[in-house]
């Protein structure tokens, strides 16, 4: 009996110690991790892993920078006169190749501009053909309405025509019966129906011709667009052209697309090189005077002529020239939108 009591006391003492250790563990967990719930430990681990990844990247970056600086400071990398002459020779050859490719690039740009003008002419022809098509439909509808009104009502003009026809065939006006009268009237109406049917057939033939012309125009447009896409995406041929010239070609193409999308219908778009670092973009909008934009190879605008609002021009040039070094593609969008705004007015 005494042993049972002692065992029970020992069990109670052990239970108290276990409860106390669990409470201590929870308090220690909160103080060490600063988390309110053990279930948040996964998020905390992921956060720490992210910090470790950033530290590892920073360490690798610093080590790479240090290695690069050591290589630069190495005396073995000194360039002699022979290397300098070789570099100068390679530079001269590269400049010649660049001049050649730049000339070819201008030819491609001019070809693209010619394709753009042809597309505009085809689009105008397409619109005129559509208008002819609509007029033919209106004429056909008017003829059908006129025929229906002649059939459904006793038009005095029709009666006069019938009477004139009868007088020509029988001047005495002597008809044997009312059946002959109705027969003549039916024949005359049938002739008019045949004439209208003939006109409708002619209209249908003209409509088929218009559809054929539309299909031909669509094929020519597709061909021109394909040529323009191939010309613009010929990366292998222009891979050695410097970045500024490539951006200039994208700029010219982008300008043409903006003006076409806004239906500005420019009469012409020309780009000419004023000197080795300066270019001039001339836009001849429809029913407007010429707009000229002078800019450098690095896409810094020098002047804009042909727009009367000088305050807007000054603000635009200032904002563009301070913005260009970071994003030249955005520069193209801004210049194109700025010109299209005035052309669309």
Automatic annotation (TrEMBL):
Keyword Hydrolase: no
Name of protein: Spindle pole body component KRE28
Coiled-coil intervals: 77-153, 186-227
GO biological process, one term: protein localization to kinetochore
Keyword set includes Coiled coil: yes
Higher taxonomy: Eukaryota, Fungi, Dikarya, Ascomycota, Saccharomycotina
GO cellular component terms, A-Z: kinetochore
Annotated keywords: Coiled coil
